[in-house]
Amino acid sequence: MDQLLLLGVFICMLAILLTLIYGFHKVRRFQRFILNSFPGQMESSFTLALDKQFRQSEALAGIFIELGFKKSLPPTRGWAASPDLLREIALHTLHAHPKAIAECGSGVSTIILARCMQMQECGHVYSLDHSQEYAERTRQELERHGLREWATVLNAPLRFYDLNGEAWPWYAIEELPTIGFDMLVIDGPPEEVSRLARYPAGPLLFGRLNAGAVVFLDDANRHQEKKILQCWAKEFPNFRQELRECEKGCAILLKDGKKMLVDIDSVAEDRVQLMTDVDRSRVQQDSE
Ligand SMILES: C[S@@+](CC[C@H](N)C(=O)[O-])C[C@H]1O[C@@H](n2cnc3c(N)ncnc32)[C@H](O)[C@@H]1O
């Protein structure tokens, strides 16, 4: 009887042991599966993120070389326009030579545009900013780079406009000169201001653009900006829309345009040449 009991206990313990070994084996397999597949995914998304950041560094390096900045620029992360968009607008400006540029939302983009005006030795940038604090910061940066005469940052507090029977908060534009603009860069107001915060730029500014003028809209990857582009496409069919692959998305609209938009890679070399010529004459003037 005792022997039978002992045999039963032995069989039970053996069964428990075998179950534990089997469970341990399964856990090890699962662990191996996680270690083999999940870190692989982690690695590829990490590499992708690194590639994207590297692309921005390359674009920023391009800006410094092609525009010949001698001083550091404000940060180009967070609220600022990303280097790839800044390079797009810089190379377009240097290629198309716009005389008058309007901008919604000042910052590092204003410095870039003003530097382009200085390089082509004519033209002016009018930048609207709803925040007195950030407007003043941009003015100080323009001063630091010796670019004050090429750009004006306008205090443009938000006020309500009646558009299509709705009240829309947008920049007060009384101080914006009543001239025709050749280029418009839209990077404000911030999306927190209202739904489709940048939509009013269409009804309020597109009519003030010259034929052939080009509009750049930052953050075109965002849902709100996509909706704005759809509204504009319906309301302004004479503006041809294109999308450029930029970190935050870049939409380009060409008014009454038949000509092709600039492919930045094809003009980059010419711009380096232009910069060299202009800088050479500046260096000559400085030494006289
Ligand atoms: C998207 S930002 C414009 C950025 C600008 N185009 C540039 O390239 O730097 C729109 C507005 O946000 C405000 N702004 C800029 N930086 C900010 C910050 N760090 N925090 C809060 N508002 C900011 C400014 O009033 C600016 O006009």
What does this structure look like?
There is one protein chain. With 288 residues, the protein is an alpha/beta fold. It has one domain (60-277): Rossmann fold. 51% of the residues lie in helices and 19% in strands. The protein contains 7 helices and 9 strands, in the order H-H-E-H-E-H-E-E-E-E-H-E-H-E-E-H. It has helices at residues 2-67, 83-96, 108-120, 132-144, 201-205, 223-235, 264-287, and strands at 100-104, 124-129, 151-155, 158-163, 166-171, 181-186, 209-218, 239-244, 250-255. The strands form 2 sheets. Strands 3-2-1-6-7-9-8 form a 7-stranded mixed beta sheet, with helices on both faces. Strands 4-5 form a two-stranded antiparallel sheet. Helix 1 runs parallel beside helix 2 and helix 2 crosses helix 7. The radius of gyration is 29 Å and the shape is elongated. Bound molecules: S-adenosylmethionine. Residues 78-81, 105-109, 129-131, 134, 187-188, 190 line the site of S-adenosylmethionine.
What is the topology, as strand order, of the major beta sheet?
Answer: 3-2-1-6-7-9-8
Biggest sheet layout: 7 strands, mixed
In this entry the ligands are: S-adenosylmethionine
Count the DSSP helices. Answer: 7
Estimated share of beta-strand residues: 15-25%
